[in-house]
Amino acid sequence: MFKKKTGETPVTTAEKKAKKGRLKAFLKSRKAKRGGVAAAIVAVFICIIVLVNIATGLLVERFPNLQLDMTAAKTFGLQDDTVEYLSQLDKDITVYVLTSEKTFKAGLNAYQGGEYFTQAYSLLKKMAANSSLSLKFVDLAKNPTFTAKYGNIDWNSDSASHLILLDSGDDYTVLSLEDCFTYDSEALNYGYYVYTASKIEQAIITGVLDLTTAQKVGVDFITGSGESEDSYTALKSLLKQNAYSVTEVNLTTSKLREESSVAVLYAPSVDLSEEAAKKLNDWLDNDGDNGKTLIYIPIDLQVKTPNIDSILKEYGMKVSDGISFCTSSDYYINDPYMFLADYAEDTTYTATLKNAKVSPIVYYTRDIEITDGSKANALLTDSSSVGVIPFDVDTSEFESNNDLKKYYKAEGITPAAIGSKTNSDSISSNVAVFGSPYMFSEQFLSTTSFNNANYIVNFCNTVTDRGDMGITINSASVDSKELGVTNATTIVTFGVIFIAAIPIIVLLIGLVVFIRRRNR
Asked: Can you give the pTM of this predicted structure?
């Protein structure tokens, strides 16, 4: 039997009844009713917020185009060329990501730069939503038999780099990790993947073009004349991305492919040998059938090239012995040797150019003199504020633009020109000369601020009769400070904020208001 503690005052029945009476009276009071209504409103509001968040997540998952891209550079949105191309795609293609969806979204094996996988996941979902592409994730560890039907891929050697497989039903192609992302090679030496950019969009489009282009046009890059391979890597990549069959040919030991339509001679530091020049001339002539195009890009140094010059002379052109310089700040960008070029009045090579209002840019360009107007004409031109400084002029002591006028006349230049030879069947072979080797560098081909990439792809499509099928996709770079750029960790963070933290804060505010009103 329990005993009452010493000093404890017993609660009488009357007191209990009094307390119950006060509670009933409070519940019936206007204050309690108002407080109850306020609490109910807060509860309903919280429920609405939670339901809206859940519904929004489900809708975005089902319809990726509803996802808002709040990054400054729109890095979570598809580029216009991608949307246009995919909207016209009439072939069903399955995009297999060769890892689990959870692993891919979490950043795969990223030590740093995992946000690029979040971005890539978003872009893949949007590409599938905007086309006949279908997106599937296959964990090869759990599905080892998946690779059996793709026998042309070496799954055993360097298998870790196989990231995405595209299957059109009658053909397939595989994309490596290097095709889809760029990463720090030095960090990889220590076993860490530090990703620096996403190329997923251009990689997928390249793969789709590879599967849907029935006959690829061949482009041969001529080697063996002292050219630097690094200088033309960006141009090679751009042409490959647009479904050209690109290879390198050393004219000293081999010949240009008969099936190739375009040859590129990129900034040779020595002249072609007589034998190599003859091979090139014979290829252009094509046994009288023509239909070939040489793109020649001279180096920005004083080099004697009589054998190359003789080819240009046959096509009505000559390369100036100097570098162009612009005196008008309306044209040059930061550096008087770097300036905008205008499209020639002849619209043959710009009629199908997308966004012809954007100009290409040239840097350290040679002037292309047209010596025979019946054979050659300009591709790009420049204003009267641009002239040529001869190589033998020392510009290191120039103090102002006025010093330049002693050595050249600013009468305008031609940064690019094309000469043609036409046979009796009205089929032409062409030699196109672009005076600036830097205009096709990674710096200028990777930006949409200038039209260099679009222009050269459009030019190649025109001379090879491919129409306007070109598509130029730029690598996407993510600034982790931008709102909307998220990796796996920040996805959870935003989820906690919007699904839990905000509703709890609203609830606490409601309780505070309720308690204060009650105690008035």
From this structure: 0.70
CB within 8 Å of 107: residues ≥ 6 apart: 113, 114, 115, 116, 117, 118, 487, 488
Tokens 């998946």 sit at which residue?
Answer: 146
Measured between alpha carbons, how far is residue 224 from residues 22, 119, 270, 508 in Å? 102, 41, 9, 76
Per this entry, what is the length of the chain?
Answer: 520
- The three-state secondary structure class of 41 is helix
Q: Are 349 and 468 in contact (CB under 8 A)?
A: no
226-247 tens-digit pLDDT:
887 778 999 998 898 888 999 9
Report the Cα 502 to chain-centroid distance in Å: 37
8 A C-beta contact, residue 275 and residue 306? no
Amino acid sitting at position 183: Y
- CA angle, residues 38, 42, 47, in degrees to nearest 5: 150
Residue range(s) of every CATH 3.40.50.880 domain in the chain? 218-463
In angstroms, the CA 161 to CA 174 distance is 10
Assess if CATH 3.40.50.880 describes domain 218-463.
yes
Q: What residue spans of 286-322 are helical by DSSP H?
A: 306-314
Q: Are 198 and 223 in contact (CB under 8 A)?
A: no
Q: How far is CA 69 from CA 64, 365, 486, in A?
A: 11, 39, 11
* pLDDT tens string 388-426: 888 888 777 676 666 666 666 667 899 999 999 999 999
